[in-house]
């Protein structure tokens, strides 16, 4: 860590903590008492503040509203039995945030500012970290352009904000997904690798259509031929085929997930065969038809490790074996939870203690 950030703290005089129902935590709807806010102006980051969570006012000409220079991160904080708050792999998110920033012509945010801002918010709102397996404090850092100017050019001013939400599971049951062969999430040379707000805007209609057809989610394929598997709408995708852990290699069209990296690190640590490579739709369908695919699941911060129950292509549905018997994904989730909740030693040094 570099020097501690100089943060001006304005505490709320009316905490909502006591009136919050921790037994009912819909994802992303309940916010903690405070938020972190910083400004980028005149070529530097300044005005580091923690203020009560609440509405803000902006110019209607603010450039993000017109040209979409906005991107975000998602990470989680866990509470250990001894009361410690632990942020999971925040420097990885800091680095990905800056990859998004570079692609969207936004300023770099020094990784220590990223991590310290989160740590400071977690510290002040530590009473909001929910207990219980599967529960955590979801952290949403984001940056957007604020120049009140309608010309198309990179903004000169930005805001960086961090919100925190106590959450439970994002998906409550194994997913019924379809392989998307009409719409595309991203294209080569585009910004699919960035956690840009626009990537999610473009995914809403295809996801809505998939839901109308009775699916929970879709699996994106490459934008050129729809011949190769890319990722899920909110997570990376991993298969177990012929006993091997197979996942699409990341490229400029795919978000390089931190949960994906964590899971592959565990698999390699256990000496399991891992293949990161292009995965064709044809291969996936053949493995499903021939019963060679024993597991499929999504991996992401919000999704954690969510099993896939069935995969469809052009209306033809293929069931996977009961996820309750999944060997690898269940073991990985158990190990991951034990590390995150401080039950086993964090030998990989993934936990950042606040
Ligand atoms: N892919 C997409 C499109 C996502 O939204 C996410 C979630 O953040 C992921 C993959 C997984 O990334 P991570 O594991 O870093 O959360
Ligand atoms: C995350 O897992 O952090 C995500 O960003 C997924 C989704 C909630 C947008």
From TrEMBL:
It is an enzyme of class 2 (transferase). SUPFAM superfamilies: D-aminoacid aminotransferase-like PLP-dependent enzymes. Acts on leucine, isoleucine and valine. Pathway: Amino-acid biosynthesis; L-valine biosynthesis; L-valine from pyruvate: step 4/4; Amino-acid biosynthesis; L-isoleucine biosynthesis; L-isoleucine from 2-oxobutanoate: step 4/4; Amino-acid biosynthesis; L-leucine biosynthesis; L-leucine from 3-methyl-2-oxobutanoate: step 4/4. It catalyses: L-isoleucine + 2-oxoglutarate = (S)-3-methyl-2-oxopentanoate + L-glutamate; L-leucine + 2-oxoglutarate = 4-methyl-2-oxopentanoate + L-glutamate; L-valine + 2-oxoglutarate = 3-methyl-2-oxobutanoate + L-glutamate. This is branched-chain-amino-acid transaminase. One of its GO terms (molecular function) is branched-chain-amino-acid transaminase activity. It comes from Arcticibacter pallidicorallinus. Keywords: Amino-acid biosynthesis, Aminotransferase, Branched-chain amino acid biosynthesis, Pyridoxal phosphate, Transferase. Belongs to the class-IV pyridoxal-phosphate-dependent aminotransferase family.
């Amino acid at each position: 860590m570099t020097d501690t950030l100089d943060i001006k703290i304005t505490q709320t005089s009316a905490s909502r903590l006591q009136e919050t129902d921790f037994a009912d935590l819909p994802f992303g709807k309940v916010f903690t008492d405070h938020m972190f806010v910083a400004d980028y102006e005149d070529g530097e980051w300044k005005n580091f503040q923690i203020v009560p969570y609440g509405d803000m006012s902006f110019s209607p000409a603010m450039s993000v509203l017109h040209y979409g220079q906005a991107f975000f991160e998602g990470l989680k904080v866990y509470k250990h039995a001894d009361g410690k708050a632990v942020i999971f792999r925040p420097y990885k998110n800091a680095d990905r945030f800056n990859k998004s920033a570079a692609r969207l012509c936004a300023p770099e945010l020094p990784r220590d500012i990223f991590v310290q801002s989160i740590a400071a918010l977690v510290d002040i709102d530590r009473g909001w970290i929910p207990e219980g397996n599967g529960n955590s404090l979801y952290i949403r850092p984001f940056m957007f352009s604020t120049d009140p100017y309608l010309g198309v050019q990179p903004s000169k001013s930005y805001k960086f904000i961090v919100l925190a939400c106590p959450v439970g599971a994002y998906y409550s049951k194994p997913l019924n997904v379809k392989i998307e062969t009409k719409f595309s999430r991203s294209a080569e040379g585009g910004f699919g690798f960035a956690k840009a707000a626009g990537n999610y805007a473009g995914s809403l209609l295809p996801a809505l259509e998939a839901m109308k057809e009775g699916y929970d989610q879709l699996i994106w394929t490459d934008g050129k031929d729809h011949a190769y598997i890319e990722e899920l709408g909110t997570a990376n995708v991993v298969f177990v085929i012929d006993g091997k852990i197979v996942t699409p290699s990341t490229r400029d069209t795919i978000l390089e997930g931190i949960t994906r990296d964590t899971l592959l690190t565990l698999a390699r640590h256990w000496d399991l065969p891992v293949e990161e490579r292009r995965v064709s739709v044809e291969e996936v369908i053949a493995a499903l038809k021939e019963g060679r695919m024993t597991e499929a699941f999504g991996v992401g911060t919000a999704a954690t490790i969510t099993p896939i129950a069935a995969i469809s292509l052009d209306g033809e549905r293929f069931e996977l074996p009961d996820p309750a018997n999944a060997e690898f994904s269940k073991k990985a989730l158990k190990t991951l939870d034990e590390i995150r909740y401080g039950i086993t030693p964090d030998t990989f040094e993934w936990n950042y203690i606040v």
